[in-house]
Amino acid sequence: xxxxxxxxxxGLCIVGGLTGFARxxxxxxxxxxxxxxxxxxxxxxxxxxxxPNGLEGAFLASAILLLSSAPRFKKGPVPKxxxxxxxxxxxxxxxxxxALRNLRx
Length: 105
Hints:
Largest sheet: none
Radius of gyration: 14 Å
Shape: globular
Helix content: over 70%
Number of helices: 4
């Protein structure tokens, strides 16, 4: 299992939150972007080390990203991109978790 997707998503979320704050002084963008980004980075580190809860954390971060951006999908390109990346990463980590759970049984 590679931690690179979670590292990438974590970096992108942090940069996106900082960019949103710099452009519009949006504190919610800053807090949400940095929080979700840090959850992704924590998850990536757990995946890299092979310790428990890394995949679950990455799936949770993906679900948060998807659910927070989906209601704003039609408002422009940034919410669309957030929704698509959140859905893609949620599908990736969801399928990975499902496959690992079936291997253990």
